[in-house]
Give the backbone structure.
Amino acid sequence: MSDAADSLPARVGRATFGIAEVLGGVALLAARLVRRLFPPRLDGPELLRNLYKMGVRSLPIVAVTALFVGAIMVIQAGVLIRRFGAEGLLGWGAGFATVREVGPILIALMFSGRVGANNTAELGTMTVTEQIDALSTLAIDPLSYLILPRCIAMVSMLFVLTIFGDVLALVGAAYTGWGLLGVSVATFTNGLVEAVRVWDLATGLIKSVLFGGIIALSSSYYGLTVKGGAPGVGKAVNGSVVASATGILVTDYFSTYVLQ
Amino acid sequence: MTTARPTPGLAATLGAGLLELLAGARGLADVGRRTVYWTLRGKPEPGAAVRACYETGNQSVFFISVTMGFFGMILVFQSALQALRVVPDLTMLGAMYLEILVRDLAASIGAMMLATRVGAGIAAEIGSMVVTEQVDALRMCGVDPVNYLLVPRFKASLIMTGVLILWGGAMSFLAGGATAYFLFGVSPATFANPIMLDKGDVLIGLAKCLAYGAAIPIVSGYCGLSTRGGSEGVGWATTRAVVNSSLAVIVLNFFISGAGFLLFPV
């Protein structure tokens, strides 16, 4: 019997059912949240608290990530710039990729690690200590009171943080180019302004909204379905960040394809 | 007479943050030192490292394949669009893609993925053991929890990060090649062009694999071991493990890339 349960088809089947269960659960959660938006039924003070907690408190980590990412992009582009001796292309090479792709993805991954994981941990703790059941008992809808404010906060704050991060990444890139490659900040800015169109910036920001939605839904789903005490919470956080990272990269491919 | 203000001023806030950062750095250095010490001097528990390899490696293959495959498709699609704005032909696309993949992206993006998958896993497991007092039980038996819990995971991560990054890099190269062929008509023979690879690129890539493989278990192990409180604490520890090990990857990437750029001039 144990051989049959461990055979390859059985394992593939189990994994497929697992993925289907998560996707279905997330879709149901999304549908129930959308229904609470018309007319909007959500807790205002809870929304403000989460906007502060998820947005303002994430500023340092986003700033550090963005500065380093900009610097790394310039170091990588620097190899090509030296080879072709085209300094004017640095702004194009580093800036285009940063605002369109690398900035939104890496900021979303860090946001998923900080805010998404934290959200799963909080909701998971509430689930295992039966606080969510207590809310239902008091006729308070947990989705309106807890989940919807968090989801709205995550989507809007990731959008704002991506704008902030894009700016800092470009600043980091400009000064690394100046320090490491001797390309003046003015040359970098010229190359950047010539090559990067508003639409490139907009693509990155549209993506950040999609990523925010994915992080919000998957982290809430994993938080609400925790089973089994402290180890369960740890496992749920792990599952939530893995699902968010997969979702971010898969969505990114399709949105890059659609938004070209 | 004014009473003391309940809200701390700017200096107090910054100072508290700095002290916390220093305490964290000291704790991290201590865990790192003990991990290296026990890896070199300790008597390995038979089979533990192999089990950890299975958990780190085999359990992450599917996740790494999917994420790195999609990442490769995105990257080729995006850079082809970007290149077409300046030059009309894409014959060098594959060569440049291969270079940047080996030099940086396979290792760095792969390690960011492993930081979420493996790092969070280590912190969640060790954190659960801390709050259920299993780690204290180990200490009572005179066993250093770093030796018993972290060292096998450290060895596994050193080996498996390299293997998974190699595998993930291959997946993203294949997926990228397919994208170039189906969407931009670049033949696979033109795409698989190693002309721009040199010794420096390979060495930088390998250095990154080793550095990330060492950093992820130490950072997450520290986060797991410093867990406090019940299930909330485990959640917090896992969150911190993901954030800090991803940050460690980004910061190490900056320094290794910078050093590589200066050491291997083009």
Q: What stands out?
A: Residues 42-258 of chain A form one domain. Chain A touches chain B through 59 residues (CB under 8 Å). The mean pLDDT of chain A is 88. The two ends of chain A are 52 Å apart (CA to CA).
